[in-house]
Design goal:
By secondary structure, the protein is of the alpha/beta class. It is built from 14 helices and twelve strands. Helix 2 runs parallel beside helix 9 and helix 10 packs parallel to helix 14. The relative contact order is 0.14. The protein binds ligand P1T.
Length: 382
């Protein structure tokens, strides 16, 4: 399990060419909304920044390179990226969604898009027979998040993609948790890959953003049309910051995953811990699959603490290296309480069924020193 050598190189150079006018090695921030035209609709390739902007163009080339795709599209948030993907569907279409998705993803599908005649069915995709059984003639899309948020379940992308091809449905993979460094869904048969770039790709807790990567020209055209027509695009400054972040993605992921592995091992031996969820532990239900389809296990670890909810709050408040906050994937370690924070919008019955309860804690392991992270958990748990 290691990062491919070429990925360290790829992230440094992805999408970035010296500026043709000045030779500037970094892509300039084209902070402009519009472009002067020579005659009506005669211009240098850009007419309005919702449609295109040179800084965003460079980012979209970088996004494509990260996933080894032909096309990349940038959005103003992860949810805006999801929205654009769903908006290529038609009323009556059926979408299969893995049950343990980010709370906001479930909310977008259940509370917003279900109003427009789309049908969403949430199922446990760790059992491939569930997917086979749930596919019906109107199934047009299968939405996979793997590893899942917050329970770190792992779904077999290749097996789901095979079923989807037979059914002529598109497979979307939310690759946010693994990052492009540790998982390549296109190599496993996916049609669309998306990221909340707010997380590992941005990496510094200072940007909200989203990415969509596609290989098929028609799918690209359809999602690009939504991007242009609906307009949830990032500004040039966000695009610049992301181009800057991507250069260190591989080195950051290496430290995130080293820390998470040590945290998972530490927690699984701790007497106050009931259960640990981390795909890198041999005790994880889909550990063998994770080893097969991932190149590393990334930086997220969830666990159930023994004791009362009051004990849980005390532990959360005693942490110092870990800050209590929503989000993940930044250089600083974060701790989150899914039931009360990121997954509060999941229907209660579903939360209970999944096991997102009062004792569940989710850690985003940052890139601080491993010993300091472990020491922080040790003192908070003591
Ligand atoms: O927050 P936004 O950039 O819109 O991305 C939404 C999103 C999509 N997919 C996954 C897997 C995510 O984790 C998220 C956002 N998640 C959090 C804010 C969180 O703390 O889990």
């Amino acid at each position: 399990m290691s990062i491919r050598s070429e990925d360290f190189t790829k992230v440094v150079h992805a999408g970035v060419e010296p500026d043709p006018r000045t030779g500037a090695i970094m892509t300039p921030i084209f902070q402009t909304s519009t472009y002067v035209q020579q005659a009506p609709n005669e211009h240098k390739g850009w007419d309005y920044s919702r449609a295109g902007n040179p800084t965003r163009d460079a980012l979209e080339v970088a996004f494509a390179a990260l996933e080894g795709a032909r096309y990349g599209l940038a959005f103003s948030s992860g949810l805006a990226a999801e929205q654009a993907i769903i908006q290529i569907l038609n009323p009556g279409d059926h979408v299969l969604v893995c049950d343990d998705v980010y709370g906001g993803t479930g909310r977008l599908f259940r509370r917003l898009f279900a109003k427009y005649g789309l049908e969403f069915e949430f199922i446990d995709m760790t059992k491939i027979e569930n997917v086979a059984k749930a596919i019906k003639p109107s199934t047009r899309m299968i939405w996979i998040e793997t590893p899942t948020n917050p329970l770190l379940k792992v779904i077999d992308i290749a097996a789901v993609s095979k079923l989807a091809k037979q059914a002529k449905a598109h497979v979307v993979v939310d690759n946010t948790f693994a990052s492009p460094i540790y998982q390549s869904p296109f190599e496993l048969g996916a049609d669309i890959v998306m990221h909340s770039t707010t997380k590992y790709i941005g990496g510094h807790s200072d940007i909200i953003g989203g990415a969509v990567m596609i290989n098929d020209a028609k799918l690209h055209e359809d999602i690009k049309f939504v991007q242009f027509a609906a307009g949830a695009v990032p500004g040039p400054f966000e695009a610049f910051l992301l181009l800057r972040s991507i250069k260190t993605l591989a080195v950051r992921m290496e430290k995130h995953s080293e820390n998470a592995m040590e945290v998972a091992k530490f927690l699984s031996q701790h007497k106050k811990v009931e259960s640990v969820f981390f795909p890198g532990l041999p005790s994880h239900q889909q550990h063998e699959l994770a080893k097969k389809q991932m190149r590393g296990f990334s930086g997220m670890v969830s666990f159930n603490l023994k004791g009362s909810y009051e004990n849980v709050v005390t532990v959360l408040q005693k942490m110092k290296v870990f800050s209590l906050a929503e989000s993940l994937g930044g250089v600083e370690s974060l701790v989150n309480h899914p039931e009360k924070m990121t997954h509060a919008s999941v229907p209660e019955a579903m939360r209970k069924h999944l096991g997102i309860g009062p004792n569940l804690i989710r850690l985003s392991c940052g890139i601080e020193g491993t010993k300091d992270i472990i020491a922080d958990l040790e003192q908070a748990l003591s």
